[in-house]
Amino acid sequence: METLPENYRSGYVAIIGFPNAGKSTLLNALLNIKLSIISKKPQTTRRRVLGILNRDTYQIVFVDTPGILRPRYTLQKKMMEYVRSALNDADLILLIVDAAAKRHPIDLDLNQLNPSKKPVILLLNKIDLITKGDVLPLIEKYNDFYSFETIIPISALQADGIERVEEEMVKRLPLGYPFYPPDVITDHPERFFVAEFIREKIFERFYQEIPYSTEVEIEIFEEREKRPDYILATIYVERKSQKGMLIGKGGEAIKAIGTAARKEIEEFLGRRVFLELRVKVNEDWRRSEVKLRRLGF
Ligand SMILES: Nc1nc2c(ncn2[C@@H]2O[C@H](COP(=O)(O)OP(=O)(O)OP(=O)(O)O)[C@@H](O)[C@H]2O)c(=O)[nH]1
Ligand SMILES: [Mg+2]
């Protein structure tokens, strides 16, 4: 192993915030790669998504998390467990808020979420949507609210302010060895991202309960010589009526999901794939402890 610089730093950074604040967009901007799926709808992220930033003198292990909410069913309870465990593992916390949101400041009990008083950096995201004059009063408001390490206005979407975020994080990381080899960007297997990209396309295309009622599982992921990889994915829905909607007239809807997801998957994997989708009913999977466990939650 190459020798590391004496002042090498490494640590875990939890990205937390309300649903839709831009946590996943931020993760992707920090890593400069699309790792975490994004949509206009809240509760897009359901699990922890780990992404690693490697530089010569430091390694930052980011954990993107589901948006903080009051759980109403078992899946949401699991989602909040991911938030809690990311906070437990963290050396540093990035709290991201939507600066363009109507409600400020956030009614979030940070003392309860962060009992061991780990350093928290506040990011005011989506500043591309507000006027410059609105930023300072917001910073003042949040300063009254909690003793943040620092407050940084950013636009995750436009990758504006991201370098400053990196600088402010590194200063606060402990000295120590890297957790992962330098060429690794995540700890999830490829099939995790394949399932997520399919789910993203469902979130983009469907409304109301459908996105929330669907989950994706990869059944077969076969690398083949001289031919595209073969991927068979099952999309679970909660009720029979939803199955028809997902498939669409003459299979139109499912075909569109497949085409859009395939493009995204191919870009991520850097190779061609043949993607086959099927839809199955998995009654009330969101509320069943056993079914959720089987789906890997
Ligand atoms: N205008 C603007 N939109 C943004 C910015 N950052 C994120 N968004 C949008 O906000 C929406 C939610 O972004 P996500 O990154 O999915 O938010 P999230 O916090 O991960 O959401 P959940 O996973 O559902 O909790 C998407 O439509 C993004 O394009 C930003 O800086 N400016
Ligand atoms: Mg997200």
Automatic annotation (TrEMBL):
The keyword Lyase does not apply. PANTHER family: GTPASE ERA, GTPASE ERA-LIKE, CHLOROPLASTIC. This is GTPase Era. It comes from the Bacteria. It holds the Pfam family MMR_HSR1. The gene is era. Monomer. GO terms for cellular component: cytoplasm; plasma membrane. Its main location: cytoplasm. Keywords: Cell membrane, Cytoplasm, GTP-binding, Membrane, Nucleotide-binding, Ribosome biogenesis, RNA-binding, rRNA-binding. Residues 206-283 form the KH type-2 domain. It is a peripheral membrane protein. GO terms for molecular function: GTP binding; GTPase activity; ribosomal small subunit binding; small ribosomal subunit rRNA binding. An essential GTPase that binds both GDP and GTP, with rapid nucleotide exchange. Plays a role in 16S rRNA processing and 30S ribosomal subunit biogenesis and possibly also in cell cycle regulation and energy metabolism. The keyword Nuclease does not apply. Residues 154-156 are annotated as: G5. Belongs to the TRAFAC class TrmE-Era-EngA-EngB-Septin-like GTPase superfamily. Era GTPase family. Residues 125-128 are annotated as: G4. Residues 64-67 are annotated as: G3. Coiled coil: none annotated. Residues 9-175 form the Era-type G domain. Residues 43-47 are annotated as: G2. It comes from Caldithrix abyssi. GTP binds at residues 17-24, 64-68, 125-128. Residues 17-24 are annotated as: G1. InterPro entries: G_ERA_dom, GTP-bd, GTPase_Era-like, KH_dom-like_a/b, KH_dom_type_2, KH_sf_prok-type, P-loop_NTPase, Small_GTP-bd. One of its GO terms (biological process) is ribosomal small subunit assembly.
